[in-house]
Amino acid sequence: MSEFLAMGGYAMYVWPAFGLTFVVMGTIVASTRLQRRRSIATVQRRQQINSASEPNSRTMDARQQ
Amino acid sequence: MFRWFHRLASLKNFYRLAEILIPWLGALCAILLAVGLYRGLFVAPADYEQGESYRIIYVHVPAAWMSMFVYVVMAFCSALFLIWKMKLADIVAEVSAPIGAAFTFLALATGSLWGKPMWGTWWEWDARLTSELILLFLYIGYMALRASLDNRSTAARAAAILALVGVVNIPIIHYSVEWWNTLHQPASITKLDTPSIHISMLIPLLLMALGFTIFYLVNMLARARSVILEREASTSWVQDRFKENRL
User: Fold this and answer.
1) Contact in structure between B62 and B195 (CB atoms under 8 Å)
2) B177-205 pLDDT, tens digit each
3) Interior CA angle at B54 toward B51 and B61, to 5°?
4) Distance (Å, rounded) from C-alpha B51 to C-alpha B17?
5) A-side interface with B, Cβ within 8 Å?
6) Pick from B12, B46, B236: which is nearest to A8 by CB?
7) Is the terminal CB of chain B with fewer CB neighbours within 10 Å at N or C?
8) B199 and A23 in contact (C-beta within 8 Å)?
9) B14 and A CB contact within 8 Å
10) pTM for the complete prediction?
């Protein structure tokens, strides 16, 4: 096990490389999730604006593009 | 045929398709990375010249390949956007940029961590390293350009042009080890010949590369969905989904 962690003497280079990769890719995932939460909040805000404006509020139909 | 293409470009359909794909691709990505890491760290033998340090290859090469692949996707989408005004293509390009930039940074950083013990230096201004650094600047420039222009459609068009202009850097990065005397080693895999790497080392490398690719796809699809939600927030299909808690 300690041999594995030592990586033949190159541990100082190998483990930070894998660690950095893990951190960066983890940050990508976290950021993706954060963006989703933010966009859902935007939709929620828009829904509140729509329902607050008029009793029979019409929502804009999606323009097929 | 055109109707199929038109449906494909519809934001609403993309949203639905991506929703179905993401969980499966996510699971596949996790499996590929787990198996690739296991084989790369435990099964593949040490290199006779570089010992255990070569194992950085299992993150360095996939990151480098992704840094180029994502940029090519961005350039392709930019062309689709400029020529056919396909909004979905612009969205894909926009959300891909930060992911590509992250991979480029990783390629450079893990490369440095490999270079220090093997070459004796953290950095060298050789063709491969320099052109990869330029790629990072291109990504950052692309994101900065988009952010700096207030008008969204102007920003999209300007960024698309930048992406297309910069794509010339990709073949330069790839062929740099052939065209110039570089410190970076020549191609062992991406060449018109049998790979000059042992199969026991190649398999985990390919698994990691595929895992990284699927990782990009999952995050790109998810981020594109978020952008679509924001842009289409007032539309009935989004509002309906929200009310049904099916966002």
Assistant:
1) no
2) 999 988 998 888 887 788 888 999 999 99
3) 170
4) 45
5) 4, 7-10, 13-14, 16-18, 20-21, 24-25, 27-29, 31-32, 35-36, 38-40, 42-47, 50, 59-62, 64-65
6) B46
7) N
8) no
9) no
10) 0.92
Beta carbons within 8 Å of B166's beta carbon, 6+ residues apart: B71, B75, B135, B138, B141, B142
Degrees, nearest 5: CA angle A43-B145-B123: 115
Q: How confident is the model at residue B3, as a pLDDT?
A: 62
State how far the Cα of B127 lies from the Cα of B179, in Å rounded to an integer: 9
Q: Say which residues have a Cβ less than 8 Å from residue B158's Cβ, sequence separation at least 6.
A: B145, B146, B149
Amino acid type, B49: E
- Which residue of B10, B55, B247 is in closest CB contact with A43? B247
The pair phi, psi for residue B47, each rounded to 5°, is -80, 140
CB B36 within 8 A of CB B58: yes
Other C-beta atoms within 10 Å of A2: how many?
A: 5
Kindly state the tokens that stand for B122.
Answer: 């953290």
Radius of gyration, CA atoms only, chain B: 20
pLDDT at A65: 46
Q: Taking each helix axis from N to C terminus, what angle separates B57-84 and B87-119, rounded to the nearest 10 degrees?
A: 150
Q: How far apart are CA B106 and CA B61, in angstroms?
A: 10
Which residues of A are less than 8 Å from B105 in CB distance?
24
Judge contact between B44 and B200, C-beta under 8 A.
yes
CB-CB under 8 Å, A59 with B233: no
Structure tokens at B156: 């999209």
For B171, the token pair is: 């073949």
Distance from B146 to chain A by nearest Cα, in Å? 17
